Amino acid sequence: APQSAEATLHAEAPAGVYDRHIFTQFAEHLGTGIYGGLWVGKDSPIPNTRGFRNDVVAALKALKVPTVRWPGGCFADEYHWREGIGEQAKRPVKVNTHWGGVTEPNTVGTHEFMDLVEQLGAEPYIAGNVGNGTVREMAEWVEYMTAPAGSLAEERAANGHKAPWAVPYFGVGNELWGCGGNMRPEFAADETRRYATFVKAPSGTRIIKIASGANVDDYGWTEAMMKIAANQVDGLSLHYYTMPGGGWPPRTSATQFNEDGWAETLSEARRMDELITKHSAIMDKYDPKKRVFLAVDEWGTWFTPEPSTNPGFLYQQNTLRDALVAAVHLNLFAKHVDRVKMTAIAQMVNVLQTMILTDGAKMVLTPTYHVFSLYKPWQDATVLPIEVKAPDYKRGAWTMPAISASAVKGKDGHIHVALANLDPNRAMPVSIALGGVKAGKVAGQILTAPAMNTMNTFAAPQTLVPVPFKGASIKGATLSVTMPAKSVVVLDLD
Ligand code: AHR
């Protein structure tokens, strides 16, 4: 079998824009995702700006987070926005029935969340309550946030924000097939039509409405939503988590795994390609012009919680394996930019495949954070198809091409190429035919480590960080890269 990979970059056939909203983050009222991870309160000894911790906000700003989805997740379908406005001390304390049964103080509500996205320079993606909320409640929330005038706008002003907020993205419920109400697809599609009708943007503004989409390979759900509700929405979501060990419920550790666990996880991550392809084919039947986009607004690894943490908090560590999972997804999304205009990894801080872990005043950036950072040039760049022929990486029951790749022409005019070597044992020379691309110089960064489960900890936060990569060169029209085993490399061609 050949021990090297060949690739061709098709710069002459650009494939569309890699929408920056593919890098959307998800922040749910779950575990320490909000309280502790983002919000510490104004009086906290942890340095903060109006309650949001400065270290975490600065790290997320550096990542150029474009959008944040909030307040859930499952939490969204039992969230009542009126409980999260007005004087903080007077807000009702509820039980978070989905996540750990802990109390929810409603301290972070609409005004606080909007302040957070403003601090981040991001846009809000608000998820509305279809599950146990009313159409009127949802309509009034939208009016409260966006109306320039009227009594809800006056109430907003009295609560400290005179100017209306822009709400560019609005989710019409979440997982209506499950925690959002256990609805049948036709019923959910009818409910989506009804609720979406009353999500109204003030004149001169636009709210992009996203319907609650399928769980994994529930193609019947996509069929029903497209057939019945597509004309009332702009996007349809899809949720798929990488969950080795036989699927739900999660039963394998984020950090204690052998090579089988590595191979199975990456193989499960690669399944996203098949899922997008098949859901898109159904969408094509009803929407051949691709007006309705696919929003993969929950993806990422889901392992068992770290020992001695509240199991309802979904707090998991993050290793080099997660970094490869992230790169595989970000590369796959490039292949599907005709339909995929938004995705959101779950979740932003302290939950599932997170960017950032916190412990009191301490903060650590995960390997996944570093992958997102390396891919910043992909935001709103033009995708250049890259065809790769790589030898397979085989382990036990799992076989997959060893190399995953994507390429873009960035807003800086440079060509950026991302490669991941999924094989944890063998380095792989990759030879990329650049066609008509004129480039003389290549610079890059690599994320790799000696062990598959290398991670950053509070004691050693810099264990796994990107470092300059010297293994790439250009000769004529060929880019040659020697990819170390289990690595992610991002190159900048000039
Ligand atoms: O991200 C955790 C949960 O996973 C979300 O609340 C829900 O939408 C999904 O089931």
Describe this structure in words.
There is one protein chain. The protein has helices at 54-62, 110-120, 135-146, 151-158, 185-197, 219-229, 259-286, 320-335, 367-374; strands spanning 5-9, 17-18, 24-26, 48-49, 52-53, 67-70, 94-95, 103-104, 123-127, 169-172, 208-215, 235-242, 293-301, 340-346, 356-359, 362-365, 381-383, 386-389, 392-395, 398-401, 403-409, 415-421, 428-433, 442-448, 467-468, 472-475, 478-483, 487-493. The protein is α/β, with parallel strands linked by helices and 494 residues long. The protein folds into two domains: 5-10 and 384-493, Immunoglobulin-like (Sandwich); 18-379, Glycosidases (TIM Barrel, Alpha-Beta Barrel), CATH 3.20.20. Strands 3-6-9-10-11-12-13-14 form an eight-stranded parallel β-barrel, surrounded by five helices. The longest helix has 28 residues, at 259-286. The chain starts with a strand and ends with a strand. The mean pLDDT is 97.
The largest β sheet comes out as: 8 strands, parallel, barrel
The strand line-up of the biggest sheet is: 3-6-9-10-11-12-13-14
Helix content: 10-25%
Coarse shape: globular
Family: Belongs to the glycosyl hydrolase 51 family.
Catalytic activity: Hydrolysis of terminal non-reducing alpha-L-arabinofuranoside residues in alpha-L-arabinosides
Subunit structure: Homohexamer; trimer of dimers.
Keywords: Carbohydrate metabolism, Glycosidase, Hydrolase, Signal
